[in-house]
Structure formats: C-alpha cells, structure tokens
Amino acid sequence: MRNRSVLLLLSAAILAAAGLTLLYRGNGLFSPGSESPRRVTVIFKTVDYETTPFWGNVRDGVFSAGKDLGIDVSIRGPAQESDIQGQIDIVRDAVREKPDAIVLAAADYNLLVPLAREIRRSGIPLVSIDSFINSDDADVRIGTDSYEGGQKCAAALMRYAHSGDTVAVMSYVKGSSTAIDRESGARDYLAGKVKLLETLYCNADADLAYSQAARLISHTPSLRGIVALNDPTARGAGRALAESGKQGTIALIGFDNSFLVLKYVERGVIRDTVVQKPFNMGYLGITAAQELIRRKRVPRFINTGSVDISRGNMFLPENQKLLFPVAEGP
Amino acid sequence: MKIRRIQDTLIRAFSALIVFALLLLGFLAYYYLHKILIQNAEETTMQLVSQLNRVIENYISYMDDIALMAVNNEDVRGFIGNRGADSPGLRAKIEKSFEAIRTVRRDIDSVFVITRDGRAIAATQGGGLNPTVALRERFAELSAGVVPDRPSVSSAHVENLVESRYPWVISLVRAVRAEPSGASMGLIQVDLNYEIIARLCRNIQLGKSGYVFILNHAGDIVYHPRQQLIYGNLKTELIPEILSLNGGNLSAVVDGRAILYTAVSSRETGWEVVAVSYLDELFSASREAEYYFIMLSLLVFMGAIGVAFLISFNISKPIESLRRSMQAVESGNFDIDITVNARNEIFQLARDCDIAVKKVRDLIEQNRREQELKRKLELRSLQAQINPHFLYNTLDSIIWMIELGESDRAIDMTSSLAKFFRIGISRGSETISVRTEIEYVQTYLEIQKQRYKDKLSYEIIFAPELSDHQILKLLIQPLVENAIYHGIKNMEGPGLIRITGSLDDGAIVIRIRDNGVGMRAEQLDALRDGLIEPNHANGVGVRNVQERIHVYFGLDYGVSFESTPGAGTVATIRIPVIAGDVM
Predict the structure, then answer these.
(1) CB A49 within 8 A of CB A271
(2) Is B225 in Cβ contact with A328 (below 8 Å)?
(3) Which residues of B touch A320 (CB under 8 A)?
(4) Order of strands, edge to edge, in the sheet holding B507-514?
(5) Contact assignment for B194 to A326 by CB distance below 8 Å
(6) What is the pTM of this model?
C-alpha cells in the first residue's frame, strides 16, 4: 500500500496527541482533583488536646504533612489516654474502612498487637508513632527513643539528688510502650545510685497523679526526688509538690511541655522536663505512610529525639521554638 | 539508481519542514514565555515583597512612635527616676495611658517599662508581670543590645515578662536616659503581636504554595509559615545565600523543587523579607500553553501531511497512469488510448504521448502493409522474369530442328522444355526439394546440351543427405544459365559445368563452377555490382537469385562469385537449412 507512510505518520501524530493529553491531564493540569488523594487514618492515644497539648502538636505535624503531600488525613482517638478498649474499637473501625495507610500511637504495648496483625494481613501499611507495640507488625516506628528519654530524666534528677537518696518514679499507663521504656530507662540509670521506690501508675490522669504524689510526699519524708514520666503525671506531681512547699528539697523531673509544666519549670517546682518533638512525629509519620504507600524503603525506626529543658535554658531561642510551637495558621 | 516516488519525497519534505518549523517556534515560544514569566514573577514578587516590607516598617515605626512617646513622657521619666520609692498613683497613671494605646492598637501586645533598679510596669493582656523574671537581669540583658537614642528591634521571641501567657512577639526597646549623665536608667519595651506579622505574610499569595518568610540580620527566622518544619529540621532555606544576596532574586533548587527567592532588605529593621515562588507553579500556565501548542502542532503536522498527500496524489496519480500506459506501449501494445485524469501539464503531456503513439502505430501498420505488398510483388515479378531468352532460344532451336527434319530431337527437346516449365511454374510453393531442383537443372542442361552439343558437358555432385532438404526453387538454374552464356558460350573447346552441393555448418552450400573464359577484375566487379544494383544491365537472373535469398533469409546469405580470366568462374550459393523442412 503506497499510503503506508502517510497512515504511519498520522497514527503516530494521533498517538502522540493522546499520550500528551494523558500526560498533561494525569498531572492534574486541568482537573487538579482528578487523582483522588490518599487516605491515611491517624489514631492517637487521645484527642483531648486540652489535657495533653502534646497530641495537639502531633496533630499540627500530621496536618502540616497532609497539606504538603496532598494526603487526606483523618485523626481519631479516644477521649482519654487510658481508654485502651476505646482505641482498640477505633482501630478496628479504621481497618474496616481500608485506608491507604494507618498511623497508630498504641495506647497499650500488648493489647494492640492482634489489631496490628490484622492491619498487616489486610495489606495496609502501618506506621507506629510515639508509642509502639510488642510485635514487628508495624512497618516503621517513629518517635522518641523512650528508653533514652527515661535516662535523660534520671540523669537530670541526679544533678540535684545525691547517691543514696530516696527517689520515686511515677509512670502513667502501665502497658504503654513509652511508659515501659521510659520507666526502664530511668530505673536502669538510677539503679544502684539511689533508693528507688515502687513505680506508681496514674493512668495519665493528672488528678490521680496529684493525689498519688501528695500521698507520696507526705508519707515519705526522706523523698528527695520524683521522676514523672509524662505530662499529666508531671502536672499532678508538680501541683502536689508546689502545695507541699517542698520544692526546695524534692527535685521533680517532668516530661513534655504543657503550659502548666512550663510554668512549674519557671517557678522551679519542676527542675527539668524532657521535651520530645511531637510535631516531627506527626509530620514524619505521614511522610513515612506516603513512602510506604509508594512502596519505597523506609527505615525501621526513626528517632525524633528529645531535649532536656530547665529554667535556665527554656528561653534560649532554639528552645522557645520547641516549647512554644507557633500555630501555622489557616 | 533508486527511484523515489514523488509522494514520498513530498511528504518527507513537508514533514521535515513542518517539524523543524514547529520545533523552532516551540522552542522560541517556550524560551520567551518562560523568560517573560520569570521576569514578571520577579517584578510582581519584588513589588509585593517591597510593599510588605513597607507595611512592616510602618508597624515598626509605629511601635517606635509609642516607645518614643513613652520615653518622653514625664510620668514615665518620673517613674524611672523615682529610685526605690514607687508611687502607686504614678504607676496607675502610666498603666492607664499604656492601656489606652493597647485598646486602640490591637497589634500592640504589651508595653513595658523596666528600670535599672528592677522595677517594672506592664500593660498587657491578662494582667501582671511574671514574678519569676528577674527584672534587674532583664534590664541588663536588654540594655546590652540597645544603642542610645535608637530603637532596637528584636527577632520574634516568646515574651515571658507577662504572667499566664507565653505570647510570640517582636519587641522594640528604647533606653530612657538620665538627664545630666546620659546613663540609661530605664527601658521602654513595646511588643508587637507576632501574629500581625504572620498574618501580613500569610496574606501574600504566591502561586499555589509559594510563601513569604522573614529573616533578621543574623539569619534567624523572624517569621516562617512552616516554622515548625524549619525548627524540626524537616525543611531548609538557603539562608546564607539569601543574606549575601542583600535584596534581589535568587534561583535555586530546594528539596527537589526549582524556586525563586525574592528578597528585600529593610534598613529600619535589618530584616530580609523573602518571597519563595515555585517555578513549576509559575509555569503551570505555560504548561497549559505548551499542551495546546503541542496539540496544535500535531494538528498542523497532520494537516501538512494531508496536504502533501493530496498534492502528491494529484501529481503522481496522472503520472503513474501515464507511466503504465507507456509501459504497455513499451511492451508492444500500441493499441491503447492514453488519457489522464488531470487538468495540468501532465494532461497535455499525456495528450502528446497519445498522439505520438497513435502516429507510431499508424506508421508501423503502413510499413507492414507496404513491406508485404512489396515482397509479394517482388516475388511475383522475379519469378516472372525467369529466362525469356532461354525460352526464346529453345523455341528457336526447336524450329531449327523441325526445319532440318530432326523431328525426334525436336520432340525430345520440346518434352524437356515442357518438363522444365512444369517444375518451374506448376508448383505454387516457393520451396522445393533439392532433388527436384537438381532434376530441374538437369532438364535445363539437357535442353542446352541439345543446342551446344559437345561444346557443353556437366557434372552434378550433391551430398546424398541433401536430397530431401527444402530449398528456394529456381536458385541454381539462373546461375547455370549465367555460366553457359558468359563462360562456356564464348570459349573455344569443350566446356564443363560442375555443380556441387554440400552441408557446411548448418548452411547449404551449392557451387556452380565452369571452365569458361572467366572474368576480368572489372567484369567481376560489374557482376558483383549487378548483384546489388537493381537496374544494372548485367545478370538479371543472377540478381533475381540474390534478391530472393535476401528476401527470404536476410543479408547473411546470398550468392558470391570468384573468377579467374581464362580459367573459369565459380558461383557459390549459401543458404540456411530450412528447419524442420526435411522430407
């Protein structure tokens, strides 16, 4: 056929046109929303941001990354950090909705394991942030190295306490991985240096922590130090210590940076507080989820780090930015 | 040589031309569009950023106005100078006037007076001073950064002078100096709500995700919309490069995206207001243009090919049909009409070809007819020309014999003559067998022998295998006649004619040899000429033989003569064996 070359050229041109249209439209030039965004479900230990501003800051990181990466993020969680069954139900519902990935801060180190296994079986990538689970089912863990955090608390305490002093460790939710690791970090550091009392658990309830600490302070006159391993615990213990007027003799080391904790630091009630980087956890959690969705390699563990804050360094420029996060605005 | 079709050539040329033109155009359009887009972006962004910078400077200068007002306020000076003893009335008066300012201007977060001796007044939201702040130390810290009679503007920071809040603010500090000594006795600090600056910057839209941030002279971030990302080391800006730019534009690739930094330095604040524009967003309009350009290009390309195809089709189709016609003519078919469906030179060409072919066809036909006629006429006339002399002489001899009363001989001769003519005339066919031809020659020689008596004798020796071959009839007799009349007749003594026939390399060779007077060279030449020239007087019979051979077998065959004067002449006939004609 003599027209073969003509047909060939014409069909090549038409093919090119079709390809280019696909390419350009595929990039969302004409209809930016054409590609449905990835859905990532994020489950916190609690969504009570008033009580635990820590999670509010994680949320900021999550939303910030969602905006940057064009991911549709939805954050859920129980009202109370101690409501493990509530979180289990939330996770179960989330799995049923089959999101593209799940980011989970496990309320309990062991009880969430079967669900994590279920998530893995459904082929949904799982990112574990802040508090981890007692299995390998999470594709990546992102958070503070809690053992290291616990050790930092203990090291801070030892700047004020002397060897042989009586020291108490106050933890929060008994089964939570961060609580377990912080506690063992602190206990391992303090073991042999001081007299360690039995660990108290307040279920991340500041009121319970307050009454526990008040009882501890009044019943143990020899007490020279308290390590409070999370924010509500530190607040409760701080309140008890301030009320007891013994902040001169008992060194309280806290965790995280809620307004009250920082006030106590300023007033010298809490001597030091170990501050994490919750914004980074949220942000990196979503970044990792996206990488997993895209089937890219992600490190098994990302340590977001922690900083020891005291009255002396809390207003240094670099610490101001960490302690008083600026909202990004609309 | 490789033959290329016009169509291919045209389409190739058109495609190449169009592709080249479109590529060039596309490249230029792309280049200039991008150049203009970048230029526009640089200009508009620079305008935006300059405007923002002016607004911020206005805020700062407004803060400075407030600070100056406080510095020159008698009450404030009185409070600062009033060492140790604080009058509650004065404090309340100052607080009241500061509050008035704060009520009017929501952008002012707080106004503070701090004295060298550690006293302070705070006009701020939510009340009092933070009791945990050591005011003497704070005075010392702030004084260290203050130049006399100049405002000092801080970077964004958390204000911890107020109780119950940790607001982000930008502070402007002025020193209040004691009259005689000039020593700084107190400080006025005005805090601008950081959110004001943030909102100003956020309000600036630079494409989909462009933004504005502010650096101070030391490269610390005053404002950044993604402050937490920057502090968390999740995002970086090219701060040293921007600072060294000192206002202007900078293109860079950050986090895998091409961006344009546009910076303006403020002399008032020492800040750099920096805009970040993403080039890919800037070019999204250009991408759309690109898409339409490419689509249009492809359309033009297709159109061009279509046009090339049509043009070439219109040219090459008639040529092709003309070519086919001419091919048919080449292979011998003149019997066609050459017509072409076209309205141009090719039509004329085809018409001319048609006329030419028709002319050639007519000529060929005419030629063929003429040739046929000529041949027929020739053969007929040639055969008709045979031996009138011989007949005349023979009849003369017969009359003689009858007059002399030699009736037996006359009878013999007459019957020989009859036989001679029977062979020569009766058969319609133009070829006869060699045997019959010999018989015919023999009859003729017998008749001539009657006339010449002992003066003529002959021998006929033919290869036996020749007898059944077909030859053209009446080839030998005219030559024998020639030998008798020109060789034997004029000689003295007995003459001998010797006729031999043989096969030589596919040809029949017949020689007629006489021992007569022979020919001189000029005579021989004349005879040879007579073979060629039709109207030559000599050798009518001989020429007849020669022409018939030529007509039948072509010029490769014919009669030739050799002669020696006084010794005789040899005539040689060479004709081909007629294939398949052996009986």
Answers:
(1) no
(2) yes
(3) 157-158
(4) B456-462, B495-504, B507-514, B568-576, B558-564
(5) yes
(6) 0.65
